[in-house]
Model the fold of this input.
Amino acid sequence: LQKRLAKVGRMLLVLCVGVVAVVAVSGLMRGTPPLEVLMSAVSLAVAAVPEGLAAIVTIALAIGVQRMVAQHVLIRRLPAVETLGCATVICTDKTGTLTTGKMRVRDVWAVDRRRALDVAASCCDAELDAGKTDGTGDPTELALLVAAAEVGIERARIERERPRIDTAPFDAERKRMSVFRATEGGATLYVKGAVDLLLPLCQDGVEGAVEANAEMASRGLRVLAIAVGGARDERDLELVGLIGMADPPRTEAIDAVNLARSAGIKTVMITGDHPTTAEAIAREMGIVRAGDDVKALVRARATPSDKLAIVRAHKAAGDIVAMTGDGVNDAPALKEAHIGIAMGKGGTEVTREAADMILVDDNFASIIAAVREGRGVYDNIQKALVYLLAGNVGELLVMFLASLVGAPLPLTPLQILWINLVTDGLPALALVFDPTDADVLARPPRQPDEPMLGRAQWMTVLLIGAVDCAVALGVFLWT
Done:
């Protein structure tokens, strides 16, 4: 919007200077007094410039901010209201944004299910609440603790009976977490992590694990490997089992993905899940359909640094990119994107500071609702601009034609300012309050090089301006 309005401003400047120069030169050649020529030039300049445009645009964006708050979206930078309306790609996290964020254990592949859940609970930092159904901490760990609690395994008892000696926390590179605990007769290492990275570290219990992992992943389950060992160095481990978990998709997010597709917006799902799991979820949500390039729409096993690369790749392809994030490491990607979107519930303060907008409910559907409002804001600004320019063209033609034929000035600069104040203010403001068109998401996104006013809009401006001029100049010459 800023680029397009700057282009319109430059065009008006050239037009204004050109017309003023023609009138001034012709007036001086006819022997018109210099003061009268100056008054004519000033009048033309005043008539050419839509003085109320800056205020109208600001108010339109502010109204957009107000409407987006009702859609659970907080705007931190005003121009993002309109930029969101021309987004062509939305890169979004899966967990908590496309899904409910409530992980639950759905399947356990193990010789001893209870032992597998005991090992998993021994390798967690989350805390369950008194009801044993929820708590604080990582959703994956909470799901493991809930499943363990259902068979009578409590983390508090584990901490008492097997005190923690050392911890190697989960990170995006290792994709596993290890806890070293004191046990009877020595110490034991408890490990949980990504199957493809943990299996190579296991010497025992791996038979059939690859097939079990593939089967669970094909059902859209997120699969964790659970292992134990006798040393701290995560070598020669014993695979205890695989645990498959699911985070149900938000129903409204599925509808929003379909709306985004109809609006010409590509949804790219970014997740740390196994590629098979990620693809199954993406197909369930409608992000991937028959004939789509899965690799272009689903980024599995993604790290925060991958997000930055994804944004840059889409920008290089000419896309207008929106990117979601919640962690500190997501901040660079949010800064790089045209629209950085932070999570309001689970996001860090650093991420929110780097973002252009904040999702209060962490819901993908709210992004699409905001896109709808953003497109409506642009439409209303365009309507107001057409209205303002039509009036200014009428004034310009009246003054220009009167000067060319040597008639007295129909309007003084002060009169033009008064007309603009009365006719450009409230009527133009009324246009920016227009409700968003029902079919706004049925259109494709605007192209980055598309002008603010197309052929149809300019025809409207010139037609209305000509009618204004004919009526005003006719009445003036008649009287």
Notes: The chain has a mean pLDDT of 89. The two ends are 44 Å apart (CA to CA). The longest strand covers residues 237-246. DSSP finds 19 helices and 16 strands in the chain.
